[in-house]
Write a structure and sequence with these properties.
Largest sheet of chain B: 7 strands, mixed
Oligomer: heterodimer
Helix content of chain B: 10-25%
Strand content of chain B: 25-35%
Distance between the termini of chain B: 63 Å
Largest interface: A-B, 33 and 35 residues
CATH superfamily of the domain at 224-328 in chain A: CO dehydrogenase flavoprotein, C-terminal domain
Structural class of chain A: alpha+beta
Strand order of the largest sheet of chain A: 4-5-8-6-7
Radius of gyration of chain B: 27 Å
Order of helices and strands of chain A: EHEHEEEHHHHHHHEEHEEEEHHH
Shape of chain B: globular
CATH architecture of the largest domain in chain B: 2-Layer Sandwich
Number of strands of chain A: 11
Number of helices of chain A: 13
Helix content of chain A: 25-40%
Shape of chain A: globular
CATH architecture of the domain at 224-328 in chain A: 2-Layer Sandwich
Number of domains of chain B: 3
CATH topology of the domain at 224-328 in chain A: Enolase-like, domain 1
Strand order of the largest sheet of chain B: 3-6-1-13-10-11-12
Chain lengths: 330, 723
């Protein structure tokens, strides 16, 4: 770990004033500290934001929920409003990490987790995300966990968060504060695909701090399901995960459909246009299979992850079937 | 006389010290002025160091020295000095010896500083330029470069080729197992305390304090009496502490150079830079008659090794001894690669070799339409065909019977995919397990204080297995004392000689030495007391009891005097002419969601025949741990190497998967009765390895029963199960 300067600002304004290219905000530190120990992150300055007033979960005027960036993952998952109205989010959070990590990890920090690509994590080998221009050994190396959608020749890493997959399905908005003031970023635009600049995971500017996540009123409640598939029953990142939400009309046709995939791309993967095209179709396994095929149509496997295409398809069908069953048998 | 303590499920005598933090491990000993070493590891699999630039590291305040091959203190130049008690054949790795880079992750420099944080940071500033050379790390790509392993394999018996050719039922299948790393919870560490007189006291993570002592004596040319190595507590080792590891060499090197106390602790990532269970590819051929009797067995295995040592393990021998068969051919080859030398890892050889044998037996049962358990019963062997000797005991048929009964095996529908429950495919599989029951020379000392406390000692270790507890039980029984009046000391090279703690032979080797020492001391006490107190002269020795700090005989108390005895125990002479082994039968239930490739092991029953069990509680824990380990081997464990870089890449416990609690269902352990007065005077065979053997095969067999799919490439990850 490199020596670094430490500050603990009292206000959001102070925090963003102190931000800069050589600085990192720290909250729970569950990812940043690991990366610093491995010399993957080498900030000269660490800005501790845990003194900021960002710990509130409150209902908004439109019936949604606003979640402060410092609310811990555990608090959020067990929050009564979240459990009752956004069970998808609760399930997704509890599918990730371990109780100890969830106690420390913050809502804002969860969005900023770095990939678990082996090569990114080992500072002794090339990686375009960690050292731009050094190369991507994963493309022809150990890529079983890597992307099947939206990858580039420069990077095939996937985003590791479970919570973000649910937030994508819930169409959350990310509230950020910078020196120019506040702005809201639709969740779909927050994370980015790697393209030629895989070192950038998201669209935050250097001076911007996540202050809250805003959830619109729940589009579905019981009729949702988070399904995570991984190499062991707990404490493993997703090979594929699915956040599925469904609204079924009285005639058993699809009146609403949202599906976000985790573990398959550099960001939670959704296709809103495709979801819309499913409206009015019968809420059946056949429809879900057709949807899955279409969503995965552009999947491009690497040498060791072709299984993810089959797995994702089956997982989508299963998650939607479970979501539907959850409505019928709440 | 009270009922013996041996055989009782006593709590660990070291439990309170461990759970309250009083037990100190190698990297936890405080010492004024202690320096901290941080290892700088290489990232090239093969090459030569061109230049090492330490200027930036040395400029960091608090850095004392950076050691590397150009400035290290003098160390032995010959290979023999580096050969330890568990060395493989060849030229042992010599840390910081010269400019050769032999594998990725090799220690190339040691930064020594006033704090761990400074040492680690400065380590990141050391610039090492390496002229890389082409490397090869892929066993499968290098099979043509295999040579015969320098192992003493049993010669061929009978005519395998002819018998296999003529056999009406055959299996010919090839299995592969991956590289696995031990990853004990406690990382390797050595604290070298530099005494004022220049002698060294070392707290080392090791399974053999005297092995580490001998190594330091030879490598640094030190007088033996000036090096003492201790290992009071060891946080798991599983074989990783059988050889002195490089943190010991580096810590001692720095202490000798700087004449200061130095500690070196490896990072979790560095725990992937020395020994491991080697990757193997194994071809099994079995031939049988219509009744299932084995007519021919061939087991040919190839394992990986380093370019500098030929590591061998008992990989194929099991196929010549577990079942009765007259025509057997065993083969074992090695492929040298640009990697570190493999190292014994829990049930070395058996854990991977029995996978192939027991999966092939399952395939044979399918070919014969015979129950897999019945196939094994039909081929039961009461003698070891490799040695031509009868087993001293072999209650394997009882393991089959009791395990099957407990599991409910009789209600198994043999047809693949026939058992389903709530949308999941259910599979039942079983396998047998075997491990040698060895006995080594060992010594022990027993000393009685004048205040009536019994101190018993031997240089063995307790790597978490329960040695402190079991030896205390044996000593208390042999002397006839209460457990609370006995203390067993271990983990110190200055104590009476003990073998490495490995191979499941600690109880069977050190136990008899402890017992003999305590019996001899008791004899000495009785003789002394009869001389000192004439009125005791005619009283039977059995009436002499040490209690409440006094000698008590026939209702009267007598003052004690301190006395001691040392015993050097030899392996039991009665073992000549017999083979001895532990056995097991393991039954597994898996539940598979084929659409999602998920597998859950819902039930395991492991029935073990290991002679007499001294402590059923610690023994059960050994089997439970072994079963969990076996489930990890079956489903998760694999150190993944990038052959382009020649480097292990999942070198942390987030990405190197072992089971978590949520993966584990019911596990039931059964110890069957197995009287054995031949194997050693305790009749006990040891249980450290047997729990893991056979488990992975049983899982794969259960998967085949559940899905109809035979997976021969371990571990059985999602993509291999996806329907």
């Amino acid at each position: 770990m490199m020596p670094f300067a430490y500050s603990k600002p009292d206000s959001i304004e102070q925090a963003v004033q102190q931000a800069g290219p050589d600085a990192r905000f720290i909250a729970g530190g569950t990812n940043l500290l690991d990366l610093m120990k491995e010399n993957v992150e080498r900030p000269a300055r660490v800005i501790d934001i845990t003194g900021l007033p960002l710990r509130e979960v409150r209902t908004t005027a439109n019936g949604g929920l606003q979640i402060g960036a410092l609310v811990s993952n555990a608090e959020l998952a067990w929050h009564l409003d979240v459990e009752a109205r956004y069970p998808l989010l609760s399930q997704a959070i509890l599918a990730g990490a371990s109780p100890q990590l969830r106690n420390m990890a913050s809502t804002g920090g969860n969005l900023l987790q770095r990939t678990r690509c082996h090569y990114f994590y080992d500072a002794a080998v090339p990686c375009n995300k960690r050292a731009p221009g050094s190369g991507c050994p994963a493309r022809d190396g150990l890529n079983r966990q890597h992307a099947i959608l939206g990858a580039s020749e420069h990077c095939v890493a996937v985003h590791p968060s479970d919570m973000c997959v649910a937030l994508a399905a819930l169409e959350a908005r990310v509230l950020v504060h910078g020196r120019q003031g506040e702005r809201e970023i639709p969740f779909a635009d927050f994370h980015r695909l790697p393209g030629a600049t895989p070192e950038r995971d998201n669209c935050l500017a250097e001076d911007e701090l996540i202050v809250a996540i805003a959830l619109p009123p729940p589009p579905f409640v019981a009729c949702s399901h988070y399904l995570k598939l991984r190499d062991r029953a707990s404490y493993a990142f997703a090979l594929v995960s699915v956040a599925a939400g469904l609204v079924v009309a009285d005639d058993n046709s699809i009146a609403g459909l949202r599906v976000a995939l985790g573990g398959v791309a550099h960001k939670p993967w959704r296709d809103v246009g495709l979801e819309r095209s499913m409206l009015g179709r019968p809420a059946t396994r056949e429809s879900y299979a057709a949807f899955a095929d279409a969503l995965l149509r552009d999947a491009r496997p690497l040498a060791h992850n072709a299984f993810k295409i089959t797995l994702a398809k089956n997982a989508i069908i299963r998650a939607l079937t479970q979501a539907q069953a959850a409505e019928e048998h709440p | 006389m009270n009922s013996p303590l041996s055989g009782q499920p006593l709590d660990r005598v070291d439990g309170p010290a461990k759970v309250t933090g009083r037990a100190r491990y190698a990297g936890e000993y405080p010492e004024p002025g202690l320096l901290y070493g941080s290892v700088v590891s290489g990232n090239v699999a093969r090459g030569r160091i061109r230049r090492i630039d330490c200027d930036a590291a040395l400029a960091v305040p608090g850095v004392v020295e950076v050691l590397h091959h150009l400035n290290r203190p003098k160390m032995a130049g010959d290979d023999e000095s580096y050969e330890d008690a568990d060395a493989a054949e060849g030229k042992p790795f010599r840390p910081l010896f010269n400019d050769r880079v032999l594998y990725s992750g090799q220690p190339l420099a040691l930064v020594v500083a006033e704090s761990l944080e400074v040492a680690r940071y400065a380590g990141s500033l050391v610039r090492i330029e390496i002229d890389a050379e082409a490397h090869r790390t892929d066993l499968f790509a290098e099979l043509d470069n295999a040579h015969d392993a320098p192992a003493e394999l049993p010669g061929p018996r009978g005519d395998f080729a002819g018998a296999f050719e003529a056999a009406p039922f055959k299996v010919d299948a090839t299995y592969s197992t991956p590289v696995e790393h031990h990853n004990p919870m406690e990382p390797h560490a050595s604290t070298v305390i530099y005494n004022a007189d220049g002698s060294l006291q070392v707290h080392d993570k090791t399974q053999g304090t005297q092995n580490s002592q001998d190594y330091l004596v030879k490598v640094f040319d030190l007088p033996k009496e000036r090096v003492r190595v201790c290992a009071a507590y060891v946080g798991g080792a599983f074989g990783s502490g059988l050889r002195p590891q490089y943190q010991l060499t580096l810590a001692a090197m720095a202490a000798l150079r700087l004449q200061r106390s130095v500690r070196v602790t490896l990072t979790r990532q560095q725990m992937f830079t020395f020994g491991y269970r080697p990757r193997t590819v194994q071809r099994l051929r079995l031939g049988a008659d219509a009744q299932g009797r084995l007519l021919a067995i061939s087991h040919e295995a190839t394992g990986q090794t380093s370019r500098f040592e030929d590591f061998t393990e008992h990989l194929v021998e099991w196929s010549g001894m577990l079942y009765r068969c007259d025509n057997v051919a065993l083969g074992y080859r090695l492929v040298p690669l640009d990697v570190y030398t493999p190292l014994d890892m829990r049930a070395p050889g058996a854990a991977s070799g029995v996978i192939a044998l027991e999966c092939a037996m399952d395939e044979l049962a399918q070919a014969l339409s015979l129950d897999p358990l019945e196939l094994r019963r039909v081929n039961f062997a009461d003698s070891n065909g490799n040695e031509g000797k009868p087993y001293s005991s072999k209650a394997l048929l009882d393991c089959y019977a009791r395990g099957a009964l407990r599991f409910g095996w009789h209600s198994r529908d043999p047809r693949p995919r026939s058992m389903q429950d709530q949308g999941e495919l259910v599979g039942w599989g079983m396998a047998g397990g075997v491990w040698e029951a060895m006995q080594m020379k060992a010594s022990a000392r027993a000393r009685l204080d004048a205040d009536g406390h019994l101190w018993v000692s031997s240089a063995t270790t307790d790597i978490g297995t329960g040695t402190y507890t079991v030896m205390t039980q044996i000593a208390a029984d042999a002397f006839g004392m209460a457990l609370a009046d006995v203390t067993f000391q271990l983990g110190d090279s200055s104590l009476p000689t003990a073998p490495l703690q490995g191979g499941s032979f600690t109880v069977s080797s050190v136990g008899p030495a402890v017992r003999q020492a305590c019996q001899a001391l008791r004899g000495k006490l009785v003789a002394w007391a009869k001389g000192r107190y004439p009125e005791l002269a005619g009283i039977d020795a059995g009436a002499f009891v040490v209690r409440d700090g006094q000698l008590q005989v026939a209702g009267k108390a007598y003052a004690l005097e301190a006395m001691d005895v040392r015993v050097d125990a030899e392996p039991s002479a009665r073992r000549q002419g017999f083979a001895s082994a532990t056995h097991s039968a393991v039954f597994v239930e898996v539940r598979i969601d084929e659409a999602l490739g998920t597998l859950r092991v819902s039930r395991v029953v492991s029935a073990v025949a290991a002679g007499r069990v001294i402590n059923p509680k610690t023994a059960r824990s050994q089997i439970l741990g072994g079963v969990v380990w076996g489930l990890g081997m079956a489903l998760q464990e694999e150190t993944q190497i990038d052959h382009g870089l020649g480097r292990y890449m999942n070198h942390n416990l987030a990405e190197y998967h072992i089971p978590v609690n949520a993966d584990i269902g019911e596990i039931e352990v059964i110890f069957v009765d197995e009287p054995d007065d031949i194997v050693n005077e305790l009749g006990s065979k040891g249980v450290g390895e047997i729990g893991v053997v056979g488990v992975a095969a049983a899982v794969a067999n259960a998967v085949c029963h559940a899905t109809g799919r035979r997976v021969r490439d371990f571990p059985l990850t999602v993509e291999k199960l996806l329907g």
